[in-house]
Amino acid sequence: KNCSSNSRGALIVLEGLDRSGKSSQSSRLVSYLESQGHAVELWRFPDRNTSVGQMISSYLSNKSQLDDHTIHLLFSANRWEKRSVMEAKLKAGVNLIVDRYSYSGVAFSSAKGLDVEWCKAPEVGLLAPDLVVYLDILPEKASERGGYGGERYEQLEFQKKVAHCYEVLRDPSWKIIDACQPMEEVEKQLQEIVWDQVVACQKGKPLFNLWR
Ligand code: Z5A
Ligand code: MG
């Protein structure tokens, strides 16, 4: 292991449509990194445990109604309230595997018609991921998986719009994995992609802020 003072954990984000396999793959990845002796934690957004997270959860389960801008800012606030802990963990050498992040925030809100730049603004200054992995699946294929639950956004027509918004956001640094492959295959490809970043961050790769 590299012992330089700038050694840190990697911030790895998994993105993708509903049912693309983010949660399944995030936990498999965490187990893998643990088995290899790395310090690692599984995080997810929204984090429904905070008071902001509870407002979000109530909105997603249709128990409350909120203006589109308001819920967008709550999702963002939910990331801001975790930012300092996130930075401390990374600096302490803990790798963070994060199930959804700012890209979900922008993709889902802009899919409702909000301006992309307006959606990005509150995310500026959050920690930039070292790696964004997009689990790629057609909305039609995703909707066949176990059926959508009853939460807001879990509808095929809306998911098609979200898919388009993710395409607009996607940049060349993203790693795209075909999420229609068997779970074990996705898992293997993910392990290979993530390994390089974990090593680079151990060697002291600098940490940046988002969208500055
Ligand atoms: N949202 C937002 O609007 N703004 C924000 O800033 C953020 C989020 C952060 C809740 O998110 C909603 O919040 C979400 C976006 C919005 N709304 N939608 N849509 P969430 O993360 O809590 O949503 P979730 O319900 O936990 O997860 P998910 O995205 O629906 O699914 P997933 O994690 O991608 O998939 P999975 O649970 O791992 O797998 C789904 C099923 O597919 C399951 O039965 C698996 O066994 C199966 N599966 C997985 N992989 C495979 C493969 N390879 N083959 C076959 N079957 C598979
Ligand atoms: Mg999930």
From TrEMBL:
One GO BP annotation of this record: dTTP biosynthetic process
Ranges annotated as spanning the membrane: none
Domain Thymidylate kinase-like, residue spans: 14-189
Pathway info: Pyrimidine metabolism; dTTP biosynthesis
Family, similarity comment: Belongs to the thymidylate kinase family.
Enzymatic class: transferase
Name this polypeptide is given: Thymidylate kinase
Entry annotated with the keyword Iron-sulfur: no
Keywords: ATP-binding, Kinase, Nucleotide biosynthesis, Nucleotide-binding, Transferase
Single GO MF annotation: nucleoside diphosphate kinase activity
Protein EC: 2.7.4.9
GO cellular component, one term: nucleus
